[in-house]
Each structure stands twice: as C-alpha cells, then as structure tokens.
Amino acid sequence: MTDVAEDANDIEKLYEYGERLNESKDKSQNVEDYEGIIRAAKGSIKAKQLAAQLIPRFFKHFPSLASQAVEAHFDLCEEDELGIRVQAIRGLPLLCKDTPEYVSKIVDVVGQLLAAEENVERDAVHKALMSLLRQDVEASLTSLFKHIESSDEPIPDETIREKVLNFIRDKVFPLKAELLKPREQMERHITDLVKKSLQDVTGAEFKMFMDFLKSLSIFGEGAPTERVQELIEIIEGQADLDAQFNVADGDHIDRLISCLHMALPFFMRGASNSKFVNYLNKHIIPVLDKLPEERKLDLLKNLSESSPYTTPQDSRQLLPSIVQLLKTYMPKRKTGEEMNFTYVECLLYTFHNLSYKTPNATNSLCGYKIVTGQPSDRLGEDFSENYKDFTERLTNVEDLARATMKKLTQGMAEHNKAMAAAKTEEDKASIKIKRQNTTTGLRTCNNILAMTKVNGVNFSYQRVCMTVSLN
C-alpha cells in the first residue's frame, strides 16, 4: 500500500509541476518544477509516462537543464514498458522544435531506434524522423547518413545500418520534391552524403543510390556535361578502375561489367567513357579468353554499346585489340571451327564504330584503305596480306550467317506449326521461348550480314546504325 501511495503522490506532484509551469508567465523561473519532472523519469511507470509528455513540453525554457532533460528522455526511449517508449519517441521531435541545435543529436538516437521490433513503436519512430526531417532536413539527413557512410571505425550494428538505408529508400527518396528545399542546395547536399556512403555498399545498394541521384534535377536531362561526368566518376569509383586487375577476382569482374552497363546512358549524354575503355583495353581484353563465358558475352555487349561514344584518340588505341579479337572469333574458310555469332556481332559493331572515329588506322590493321589525306594513311605500304586474311574471314562469316539464317527460317516455320498444334499452355510457353530465340538468332545474322559488306581494297566505310542483339 505504501508503494501505491508513493506512486500516487509522485503523480500528484508531477501534475502540480505541470500546472505551475503552464500558469507561469516566466517559466524559466520555475527551475525546481522542471527538475522535479526530470527526476520523475526514474520513477514509477505512470510517472515515467507523464514525464515523457512534460519534459519536451517545457524543454525550451530551461537551457541550463537541457543536457539532463535530453538524457532523461533518451532513457525513457529505452524503457522495458512499450507504452513509455512510444510516448517518449513521440516527444523527441518536440525537444528541438524551438532548439534546432539538438536536431542532429536527436536524429542520431531516433535512427538507432529504427531497429524496433514492435509495429506501434516502429511507426512512432518513422513519424518522429519525418517530423525532424521537416524541421531541419539538412541536419537530419547528415545525421542519418552517418549510420551508413564509411568511416575508419567499423559500424557497430549492421542491423541499424540496414534499417536506416531502408528508411531513406522508402520514406525519404520518394518525398525528395517536398523535402529537398531549397532544391539545388539540398540536392547538392544529399549528393555529397551519398558519395560518402558508397565506399562499402552492395551492388543493389549502389544501384539504389545511383537511381536516386540520376532522378535529381541537378543531374536531369538539361544538366551540363560536367554534372553528368560527375555521375560517371562515381560509377568509375565503384568499378575500381584504379586497381590492378586479377582475372580470378570474380567479384571485380561482375562489378566492372555492371558499372559499365550502368554508365551507358551517361555516355549517351556526353560523359567520357575514356577511363572504362582504357581499362578494358589494358587489363581485360588481353585475358578475355580466361573470363567465364557469360561474363565474356556481357562484356562484349557493353563494350559494343559504348563504342559509338569513344573518342578518336581512344578509338585508335582500342581498335588493334578489337581487330585481333575479330581474327580470333571469325574462323578462316574450311577450318571447321564453330563460330559464336553474338561475339562476332558485338565485335563487328565495335569495329565499325571505332573505324568511323579513326578511319586511317584500318589500312595497317586489316588492309582497308580509307584516304583521309593524313600521313597516317600509309598508302605507300603493302598491307595486302592483312586484307586477304581479313576479307577471307569476313566472307566465311557471311557464308556461315546465310547458312544459319536458312536453318533458322526453317526452324521458325516448324515452331509456327508446332504452336498451331499445341494443346497445353505449357507446350505453348515452351514453343514461344524457342521462337524468341530463333528470332534473336535471325536478327543477329542479319546484323552480321549488314556489317560484313566491303567494296574491295578501297574500303568505303559507312557507319552502321543498329542495336546489338541482347540475347
């Protein structure tokens, strides 16, 4: 009975403190009342619940007690009783409503509370964070990103990092138009925060951040080239293009190819692909045969799609490697070698685009004379053996492509008959896949035939405009 009476007495005192503070015109004079409220944070369950309401309400009037009040309120956020925790969390944004200097500290704590397991508690945390973001978006974002950005000290709790990442993805990014104001200033701020967070991210996390960055207006369609180049530099950093390449490092290969594919839209907008191209030429192409087959194909496809945006200088450096690869994958007549049509398609497309940028290099490489009027045309030298070898391979490729097209056309007719006779949806689905593969094969052969047209020794080059098949 004594404990119950003491609890009732504590609650009564709390109400008295609150009433006096409410009625006081100069609340800063009621220091003892506010100290009593802070002490109640260590009292009974009901006292703690009431203290969780009163501490934020009068917080701004007692700057000399701010540290004590904040620590007492943080303790309430960690109470065993769910009701106390939820009440305390709801009060956190009020602590800095009129004292913005506390936003960073409060957001840091609330970010840690994202790991809460109870739905009602987690909902309170989300609402508190959104309220804090609307109070001071710059300070709030800076504090939140500290939970995910790389630092010399290891992040103590990976769960919190993941929860903060999910919150930023699901709650902050979709509201960028509302939260990021003034727009250019805040978009620049969050871009800088994202950059600091990219040193140790998964592939999925990196893609999430890049998708967000390219959605910002400062990187939009009207953005200057230097802004687009900034995104490319971020991708180059993720691809680790300054590292010595190890062909046994499958993770680096995957990351490199993924980043090159991600960079393609930015090459189209004027950003430089020079660092990627030179890295591929120096480190990857010389050991291409050692890559896994699926990675080799992805690399050749991405390289071919990047080739239209290569500078003349980089094209001149890369072209000899591409010609050598063509000789590797385009068999001579009557050798009986099988040919990978998609490899050849990608390489021919790359060859055409690079030759377009540096036409006077083709004479010495494959005997095709394109007169540009420059000394590098090397018209006085005899490259007839190169021409004979290369054209023989091209002719054989044409023959193989035509023969394959004939078979594929026959196969398409058989697929159509089979589809008409199919009884079950499962059978129809299987035939559709076969028909799609056949269509892709026909398109690949057509592309190859378009790219193997040559007009004698005085090769008349026309730029090929087509999309490489992505089968």
UniProtKB/TrEMBL annotation:
GO annotation, biological process? regulation of programmed cell death
Q: Which domain of life is it from?
A: Eukaryota
Q: Is-annotated flag, keyword Lyase?
A: no
Give a yes or no for keyword Cell membrane in this entry: no
Provide the Gene Ontology terms for cellular component.
nucleus
Give the UniProt keywords, A-Z. Answer: Apoptosis
Instruction: Please provide, alphabetically and separated by semicolons, the GO molecular function terms listed in this UniProt record.
Output: mRNA binding
**Family recorded in the similarity comment:** Belongs to the API5 family.
Its protein name is Apoptosis inhibitor 5
Q: Which organism is it from?
A: Aquilegia coerulea
